[in-house]
Amino acid sequence: MSPFKKLIVFILLLLSTQSYAQKNKTEWSDQEIDNLKKQVVNIYVNNPFPIGFDYSMGDSTGTGFIADKELGLIVSNAHVTSKGPAIITIEFITGDRVSGKVIYYDYYHDFSIIKFDPSNLDIKEAKIGSSLTLKDNEPLLLIGNNAAQGYSIKKGNVINKFKSQGVNSSPVVQTSMVVAGGSSGSPVYNLNNEVVGLNFRGNEETNLVLYIDLVKDALTYIKNNETPKRGDIGITPVYVKTAKMAYYCSKAKGLCTESKNLITIGYVTPTSSADGKLMGGDIIWKINGQEIGDNLYLLGKILDNNVNNNVTLSILRGEQELELELPVVDLNQDKTTKFIKYAGAIFQDISYDFRRKNGYYGEGVFMNYTDSGSFNIGYTRQTQSGLSGLRSIVITQIGNTRIKNIEDMIEAIKDIEDNTPTYYMFRDLYDTYRIEDWGFLTIDPTFATLEIYELEDNNWVEKK
Questions:
Q1: Does residue 298 sit in the same domain as residue 261?
Q2: CB 186 within 8 A of CB 146
Q3: Does an H or E element contain 409, and which?
């Protein structure tokens, strides 16, 4: 045998041995875990403004992982980094600290991409795999800031890869790992040391891991200096409960031939593309002629690829098979890019997600926070840290001006006279009856400064 052929045989044997060893691997070595820790970061956030329905002010901590060491990109949860002008500090296992800036977030799928300066840092980049290839009972490893204890280790297994959770029922994997606060944004690894999930929710019994494929798709756009595509038709998709599967499978030939589950509509967003066309309980069978089955990721992918176009849905509604055409809206256009602070309160436009969560059809501006003072109205929302200034108020009129959006609010404020009672109307979303109520507010000139904040090139700028 020639030396060249001997070399080829040796290489094939070596690869075969490594492949066999990898296939039969059941645990991570201490050295492997130490190397993986170099890919993980602790994230510290100071959020001075509560933007959105879910977000509160103050300090918080979470986890992230290095997705690109050359470009300086870190992945975490959107609920860790917030929607507004937060101050973000990144801490590496070496103890080095740098500032970070959110350059993209997906509130619905709950992930964010943070930019930082990688110069002069000894850091490691994670290898991103796929959640789609995970198997039942497959071993998983989580490294994160669990219970604010940096670089803690959690191990578990895949329980169910057909779960839907998150703001708009994103595809997630249920695991057996037990996690605590601070582990949000932690990478979850398989035995090949690939990131196959992003931790975003859990408790003492189980935890939920976001499909990493959603993040990987967004990173591809970011690395090409493009904005990730995010399409939506205004539905909250969920999986059919097991007890109902037999009924649905009997209604349409071929509906359940390969899928372990079916996707149904749990809720339709008011004023959305689906409003008046789709209904809760509809089974989504096909989209643009392509069968969906149990692939929630595929459903979202097709919508993302058809932003500002129409899609055709084949649905099963009771005994009927229907085809409906719906326009796909751009969810990126729904993000908060402007808010104001006035007399101790924060106001912003009503968003698409706001309508989805609250079943709200009306107009106005959302007041989600107020210090005790002029706008101290409505119920106070309960938070994990106790009572705060978080509210759920929609301002619909000030003086003689009906308020439709934030621009109307800014103009109405100009007509308010200091120390003079001004008539206003509002709706309190925590009020059982949600009737439009009214009152008088008196503005103390000491706190009457109007602050306007706008997002420009991923930087929040205060306008004078």
A1: yes
A2: yes
A3: helix 406-414
